[in-house]
Write a structure and sequence with these properties.
single chain; alpha+beta
């Protein structure tokens, strides 16, 4: 006769423990993943906030509230700052102020931020910087201008600038566009000859925004051509 095998019944507390073990383990995994996600988010926010402060003064208060404001505006920025702005709704004037621009010989500089919107490298030489400071250019020697869509497209295509991240972008909760479609950053010049090109771009902005022709000095090589405002 085969010997019978005796199975000792589980005590009530061991039965409850065995049923709770899978639940406790899944909760522990969720807790570890949650803490890891929070730590990664804190690390990202810390470095991102540090980069925001490093851009310097301008546009937004340099505190955490200003950082949160910029973080919200990022949700509505342009996907491609090198895309040309759309034509004017009225179609008048159909043409811009600039007929042509030379190709900027340098590659595009690194750019970051929204407010402030800064050029991070390709700082101008000392002699060029001195001339720019006399002309009251910005801290990083770049400048922001509003141009006719055709002029903005020409400036972008020839490598002289790019659209601001919020140019023409509606912002939810504000109910309007903060900046016009043709609001562009023009990169800092790298030589005195490039300053002359920038002067003509400034004239184009004055023509488009104020309807006036600003005085200019002709480029020695005649590479920048402009239209006569009287034609409009």
């Amino acid at each position: 006769m085969a010997a019978s095998v005796y199975h000792q019944p589980l005590l009530p507390w061991t039965s409850r423990l065995s049923s709770l073990l899978p639940l406790r383990f899944s909760q522990l995994c969720c807790l570890v993943l949650g803490i890891s996600g929070i730590l990664l988010l804190c690390r990202f926010v810390y470095h991102d906030y540090t980069d925001f402060i490093a851009l310097g003064p301008g546009g937004t208060p340099k505190n955490f509230l200003g950082y949160l404001r910029i973080s919200y505006l990022r949700l509505f920025t342009l996907k491609d700052p090198f895309s040309p702005p759309p034509p004017t709704p009225t179609g008048r004037p159909a043409n811009g102020f600039l007929l042509r621009l030379p190709r900027r010989p340098q590659p595009r500089p690194s750019v970051a931020g929204i407010a402030p919107h800064r050029q991070l490298n390709q700082k101008p030489p000392a002699n060029v910087y001195h001339l720019l400071r006399i002309a009251l250019y910005s801290l990083d020697s770049s400048m922001h201008l509003t141009l006719h869509p055709a002029d903005a497209a020409l400036v972008i295509s020839q490598g002289w600038g790019e659209r601001h991240p919020l140019a023409g972008c509606p912002v939810f909760g504000i109910g309007k566009r903060l900046l016009p479609e043709g609001f562009v950053m023009v990169y800092a010049p790298q030589s005195e000859g490039q300053i002359e090109v920038l002067h003509d771009i400034v004239r184009a902005a004055g023509w488009w925004v104020g309807g006036v022709t600003l005085a200019s000095e002709s480029n020695a090589e005649g590479v920048v051509l402009t239209r006569n405002i009287d034609a409009y």
